[in-house]
Specification:
homotetramer; mainly alpha; Fumarase C, Chain B, domain 1; Fumarase C, Chain A, domain 2; Ribonucleotide Reductase Protein R1, domain 1; elongated; purine biosynthesis (chains A, B, C, D); lyase activity (chains A, B, C, D); L-Aspartase-like (chains A, B, C, D)
C-alpha cells in the first residue's frame, strides 16, 4: 500500500496487530467449543482468554520466531505460549494453519468491505446532493466528444449515482460471499476437529460456515470480491474522466476545488489541473490490476497450494486500501466540485443551435418528408452552421425546401430547451426513489 | 469465436440474422407504443409487423448498404424500408442507434447467460452424481502436492459442486443486471421519445427498464457480467487442473474417457493424455482475458463514445461461446471420468502411514506431551518413513519416548481410515441439501 | 477475428490452406534431409514433393478425418497419404506433432510480424509527412488538459513518430525471437531424429534453430511477441486519444476525414464523430488483452502440456489481424487528418496570454525576485485573466510590484511565440535524422 | 512492496532518500550547465553543490512542506533552499517538475534493471552449474503429465537456462530503452531551457537523451520495461511449476532444500512442501499484474496527464522489488535443489518400457509396416502394459505380427537409454557455447 493513498482506518484492518488479534480470537473461540466438547480442559480455554484477551502481542517477537521456524502460525502459537503458559498446548488442537489464516482473511476482507461500503455511501450521498442541486442546470450532452443534445448536469450525476448504487450492491454481495469461516482441518474433512467448532467460531466472528472447504476457503470467493472492486474502480475512472473533460481549458464547465496554498504547477502558476481526478484514474488502474491475479489464484492444486498467499499479501491490503482512499478522494471531489452553469450555457450556444437538429429532423419527417430526405435537409443547413457559416435556425428558415414543410414559426418552436428537460423528473424519480 | 470451440446454440445468439431479428422487434414494439401515443399512425405500426415479422432480412444486402453509409443501424433501417415500404419512415422516430444496439446487446447477453446457466446445470448435475457415487471412495488429500490426510473423491467433487453453484448464482445476478432496456434518445433525456416507449419495449423483450442511461446502457453492467464469466472460467481451470494432476502417470487416480479411435500421440501410441482438461485450462485463459477490457470499457467519455463497440464485437460472442463450449466439455469430462479407486488406495499406502501423523501428534499432545515435544517425536519417526526407512507405524512402536506415552495398541488405533471419513455426511448434507 | 476489422492479407496467413501448406513444406524439407541421411529412401522424398507440391489440400477432408481420429496432425498426414500414396509413410519419421505445429506457428507469426512492420512503416511515413508539413503550425501544448505553453502540431506528431519507431524496433526484435524452428522429437532430445534435419528445415523456412526445445518451442518467445503488440496497441491508443481530444466540439483543432455519403449519427445529422479513433481505442484493448494469457501460457507442465494451444488459436490470429487492421486504419486517419491551424491559434489566444506565464515567472526570478515571490506575482495577475478578468499582459503591466522589476517593454517581449518554437529544429533533427 | 519479499538493495533504490538524492543531482548538474551558458551565476551552481552535495535531505521536513503546498517537487525545492540559501532560486530555472521526476524515475528503473540483471546472472549461473552436473542424469520426459521418452535432468535445466538468457537479453534492452533523460520544459519544446542542459545532465547521470518528449518521457518505454519483467516472471513460474511437480509425493524426483529448524506444517510434521516454488508462482502473478496498467499508462492526454503517477508509485517499486526477491529465491532453490537420480530411474521404469514405444513404432515402419499398421501393433502391446498387464517388451516379443517384422533381438536393442541421450552434447553445445 502506498502511504499517500492510505487512510489509517483501512490500514489498521491489515496491520499485524489486527491480524494477530483476529488469530487469537479464532483460536480462543475454538478452544471454548473444544472445551465444551471435552476435547480439552475447560480450565485451559478459560486461561487462554484470561491471559491473552487483553495482552498486546509482540509483533517483533513473533517475527523473530518466524525467522527461525519459517512458519507464521507456529511462530504466533509459540509466542502465545509465552503469554499463556502451559495451557497453550491445548490451543489449535486438530486445527491446521489455514483454518486460522483463511478465517482471519475472511474477517479482514469483510471489515474492509464494510469500510468500503461506508466510502460508497459517502460518494452516493455527495452524488445525490449535487444531482438534486443541479437537476435543472442545463448543459450540452456529448457523444463522441461532440455536442449532441441538451441534458442537465443533474442527469449526468444521476447516471453516476445509479452506477455507484449498483457497485454498492455488488460489493454487499461480495462481502456476503467472503464472510465465511472454515475450521475443517488439513484437508477439509473434520478428521481431527468437530464441525461444531467451526459453527461456533463462525457465529462468534460474525461469519457463515463454509459448506465445504479443502484445506482452504475456495478462492472463487476472493476472486469475485476483487472483481467487484475492479468494477467499482472502473466506475470511479468514468466519473474522474468526466470531471477531467469538464475541466479542460476549452470546456471549463466544472473544476475540482482548489485549496488555498495549493500549487498547480511549478512552472505555470495560473494552472488549475484536475490532479485529483487524474490521480483517481491511476488508482482505478491499480485496483483493477488485482482482478486477474485473484482469478489466477483460484486454481490451487488439489486440496491447496500456497501460491495464492503472496498474491493476497499484496492485493488484499493494496486493493482495499487504494479503493478506500479513492472513494473518499472522489467523494471530496464531488462534494466540492465547482460548477459553472454560465459556461455550460455558453458552450451549448456555441454551435448555433445545432443541438436541436434531431428535433428538426423529426419534425420534418412528421411533416411528410421521408427519413432520407429529412436527413439531407437537416444536413445541408447544419454543416454550414458547423463551419461557422450562419446559425442553424437562420439557415433553416432560408431554405425553401424546409419552409415548404415547416413554417418559420414552427421551426422556431423546435429550438426550445424545455423540450429536452421535460422528462428529467421521470429519471430522477426512478433513480432517487428511495 | 474459434469454430472448434463453438456450439451452434450459442453461435446462433450472436449471428447477424439473430441480431437483425432483435433489432426489428425492438423497433416494431417501439412503433406499437408510439402508435398508441399518437406519435405515429396506428396503421404504420401494424404494417411494420405485417410486412416484416416473417421476413428474412438479407444480411448481404444490409452489409452492402452499410459499406456505403458506414452506419449499421441506418443500413438496417434502409433495408427495412425496402421490405416495409413507405410506412418505414415511422420506424425509429425519436430513437437513437444506441437505443437499438444496446437493448439488442442486452437481449443477446441475457440469452447467452441463460444458455450458460443451462451449461452450469449440466456441470452441477454431473458433479453431484459423481460426488454421490464416490462419497466413500477414499483417496489421499494433498496440500502442496504432498500427501496430507485421507479424504474421499466424493468430497473433492463436492468442493467443485459448491463452487460451481456459487458461480451459477453470480451468473444469475449478472444476467439480472444485464437484462435492461434503454430507449431514451441521444443523451438519455427522452427529449424526442416518451419514456413509456422504453417501458413497453422492455416488457415485451423480457427486460427491466434502465433507470437512467446516457446514450448507452452503462458499461459497469457489462463489466460485472464478464467478470462473472471470468470467475467461472477460473473454477473450470481448477477442476481441469485437478483432473490433469490425477491423470499424471505417477498418480493415475482418474482419467478422461478415451474414445475408440481417438489417437493420443502421433509418436507414442500408448499415451492417454488429459487433452480435454488441458484444453479447458487454455479456454479458461481465453474467457478470463475479456475481464480487463470489459472494465476498460466502463469509462466512456461524457454521454458515450464508441470505443467499447469493437471490444464487445470481440468479447461478447467469444467469451460466451468459449465458456459455453467449455462448460459442456467439462460436463462431458466429469460425466465420463474414469476413476481408479484401487490406485487411490495404492497411492495412499505408499507413504507407509504418514498420512496419520497429525492424529499421532494430537494423541501425543493429549497424552501430556507439549506441542513442541509431540512435534519432535512425530518428526523423528516420520522422516525415516518418508525416506523409505521403515513404516511410520513400526517406527513409532519402536520409539521408547513415544511408547512411554502411548501403548502400541493405542498407536495402532490411530491408523484408522474411518476416523477421517466420519464427518463426510456432515459435508454432503451441507452441500447437497437441496 | 472480427470480419470488419480484418484485412485479407493478414487473414490469409492464418487460413487453414496456408497452415497446411506450411505443414507440408516442413514435412517435405525434413524428408529431404532424412533422405540425404539415408533414413528414408531418396525416391520417397522426391515423390512427396512431386505429388504434393502443387496439390491443393482438401481442408474439408482433413476436418472430416480429424473428427474421427481427434488429432490434427494425424488427420493431415492421413490426407497427405491420400495424395502422395505409399511413400507417405516416410513422412514425419521420428518427428512429433509439435515439431510441425510449433514450427508452423513460428512461420505464421514471423509472416504476421512482417506484415505488421509494413503497417508500422505506413504509419511512420504518414506521421513523418504530416509532422514536416506542420512543423511550424503553432498550437497550445496541454498538460492535464489545461493550456500550458505553445508547441507545434508537428512536434506533437514527432512524439508519435519516435514512439512508433520504438514500437517497430521492438516488433523487429520480437520477430527475430519468434523466427525459430524446432524439430527435436517428443521431448526435445533428438532421440529419433538427427539434429541436422532441424537445421535443414530451419534454413529452408527462413528460421533460426531453437537451441533447446522441450516438445515445444518455449512460450516466453510468444509472450514477448504479444507483449510487443500490446505496447504498440497502447501507442495507437495514445494517438487515437489525441485525435479524439482535438476533434471535440470545443477544441476542434483537427478532424478525421469524413467521406462523402458517410452518416455520422442516425439522429443528429450534423455530427462528425471521431469514430475511427474511438474504434482504434477499442481495438487497442482487444490487442492488449492477449498479453496476459500469452504470459500464462509460458508455464507449461514438464516437457509440454497443450493448454497454450486453444489460447493461441484465439490470440494468434486475432491479435495480429486486429493490430494489422488498426495500423492501416490509423495510417489512414493520419494521412487524411484535417488540421485547422486557425482554430489552433484561436484556442491559444483564448486564455489571454496565460501560456506565457512561465516565461514571466522566469524573467521575474532573473530580475531578482525569489522563486516564491515571482510565483506570487504571476499568480495574482494570472488568476483574474483565467477568470476572464483582463488579459494577463495588461494585468502585469498594471501591477506596480511587477513593473518595479520589469518594464512594460520588457514584459511585452516575453509574449512572443518565436521564443517557444526556437528549438523545434533541434527536436526534428533528433527524431527524423535518418 | 511486501516486506517479506523485499531485499534491502532494491528497496534502497526506491527510498525517499535515494529519490531526493537523484533529484538533487539532476538539479545540480542542470545548474552547472546553465551556469556555463550564463543563464545563472557560476557561483550559484558552485554553492549548490557545496552546500547540498553531502547534505542529508530531511524527508520528514519535505513531507511537511508537501502537505502544505501539495506539490512534491516544490516541497523539495523549498527544502533545498533551506539548505542552500539564497542561491537556491537559481535551481530549476526553466525546468518543469516532470523533468526532474521522469529523469529520476529513469535512473531508478535503470538501477533496478541492473540489480535484476545481477539476479538473472545468479539464476543463470545456478542453472548452468546444475545443468552440467546433471547432464547425464536420465529421467523421463513428460508431455501432458504423462511419461513420454527419456531425457536428462540436465536438459531440463538447459531449457530454463536458455529461457532465462533470453529474459536477460530482453531486460537489457528494456534497460537501454528506459535509460533516458528529458529536460525539455513544460511541453517538451525547450522554450525556457537550452537543449544542452538535457545533454549535460544525461551524460552525467549515465543516460541517453530522449529525442522528443512531451512534458514527460513517453510511457511506451515504461510499458516495455514492465512487460519484460512480466515475461521473466512467467519463466520463473515455469521453473517453479517444474520443481513443484517433481516434488509431488508420487514423483519426488527433486526437492527444495529444507533447512534445519524449518517446520513444514503445523499439523503434519513429516511434510516437506515446495513452499518456495509455490511462493514464486504467486510472486510471478504479482509481477505480471503490472503489465496491463503500465500499458494503460501509455495513452496520456495531450502533452501529459498525471494518471500514470499513482500507478508507477505502486508498480515501480513493487514489480522490481518482488522480481528481485523472486530471482534470488529462485537462484537459492536451484543452487540447493536436492535431486534424486534413483527415483528418476524408478519412475522411468514404472511403465515397463512404454517410453520406448515411439522407437518401436519407427522400427516397425522401417521394417515395412505402414504407419497405421505400426501404430496398431504398438498400441495393442502398449495398452496392456499401461494397465499393468505384462511388460511392453515381453508383450511385443509375444506378438507374432510384430516378430514377423522384427526379431526378438532387434526388439531388445530398441530398449536402450543411450539411444535417447546421444544428442545431449549437441544441445549443451548450443546452449552453453559461451
Amino acid at each position: 500500500m502506498i502511504p499517500r493513498y492510505t487512510r489509517p482506518e483501512m490500514a489498521a484492518i491489515w496491520s499485524d496487530a489486527s491480524k494477530y488479534r483476529i488469530w487469537f480470537e479464532i483460536e480462543a473461540h475454538a478452544a471454548d467449543r473444544m472445551a465444551e466438547l471435552g476435547v480439552i480442559p475447560k480450565e485451559a480455554a478459560k486461561v487462554i482468554w484470561e491471559k491473552a484477551e487483553k495482552a498486546e502481542f509482540d509483533v517483533a517477537r513473533i517475527d523473530e520466531i518466524e525467522r527461525e521456524v519459517k512458519h507464521d502460525v507456529i511462530a504466533f502459537l509459540t509466542h502465545l505460549a509465552e503469554i499463556v503458559g502451559d495451557e497453550a498446548r491445548f490451543v489449535h488442537q486438530g486445527m491446521t494453519s489455514s483454518d486460522v489464516l483463511d478465517t482471519c482473511l475472511s474477517v479482514q476482507m469483510t471489515r474492509a468491505a464494510d469500510l468500503l461500503i461506508t466510502g460508497m455511501d459517502r460518494v452516493l450521498a455527495a452524488l445525490k446532493k449535487r444531482a438534486l442541486e443541479h437537476k435543472d442546470t442545463v448543459c450540452v450532452g456529448r457523444s463522441h466528444g461532440i455536442h449532441a443534445e441538451p441534458t442537465t448536469f443533474g442527469v449526468k450525476l444521476a447516471t453516476f449515482y445509479a452506477e455507484f448504487a449498483r457497485g454498492k450492491r455488488r460489493l454487499e454481495m461480495a462481502r456476503e460471499e467472503i464472510a465465511v469461516c472454515a475450521i475443517s482441518g488439513a484437508v477439509g474433512t473434520f478428521a481431527n476437529i468437530d464441525p461444531s467448532v467451526e459453527t461456533h467460531v463462525a457465529e462468534k466472528m460474525g461469519l457463515q460456515v463454509e459448506p465445504v472447504s479443502t484445506q482452504v476457503i475456495p478462492r472463487d470467493r476472493h476472486a469475485a470480491y476483487f472483481a467487484a472492486l475492479g468494477v467499482i474502480a472502473s466506475s470511479i475512472e468514468r466519473l474522474a474522466t468526466e470531471v477531467r473533460h469538464l475541466q479542460r481549458s476549452e470546456v471549463l464547465e466544472a473544476e475540482e476545488f482548489f485549496s488555498k496554498g495549493q500549487k498547480g504547477s511549478s512552472a505555470m502558476p495560473h494552472k488549475r489541473n484536475p490532479i485529483l481526478t487524474e490521480n483517481l484514474t491511476g488508482l482505478a488502474r491499480l485496483v483493477r490490476m488485482a482482478v486477474v491475479p485473484a482469478m489466477e489464484n483460484v486454481a490451487l492444486w488439489h486440496e491447496r497450494d500456497i501460491s495464492h498467499s503472496s498474491v493476497e499479501r499484496g492485493i488484499g491490503p493494496d486493493s482495499t486500501v487504494h479503493l478506500d482512499f479513492a472513494l473518499h478522494r472522489l467523494a471530496n471531489v464531488v462534494e466540492n466540485l465547482v460548477v459553472y452553469p454560465e459556461r455550460m450555457q455558453e458552450n451549448m450556444d456555441r454551435l448555433g443551435g445545432l443541438i436541436f437538429s434531431q428535433r428538426v429532423l423529426l419534425a420534418l419527417t412528421q411533416a411528410g418528408a421521408s427519413r432520407e430526405e429529412a436527413y439531407r435537409l437537416v444536413q445541408r443547413n447544419a454543416m454550414p452552421a458547423w463551419r461557422g457559416e450562419g446559425a442553424f435556425l437562420d439557415n433553416l428558415k432560408g431554405d425553401s425546401d424546409v419552409t415548404a414543410k415547416l413554417s418559420a414559426k414552427e421551426i422556431e418552436v423546435l429550438f426550445d430547451l424545455g423540450y429536452h428537460t421535460k422528462n428529467i423528473d421521470v429519471i430522477f424519480d426512478r433513480v432517487f426513489k428511495d
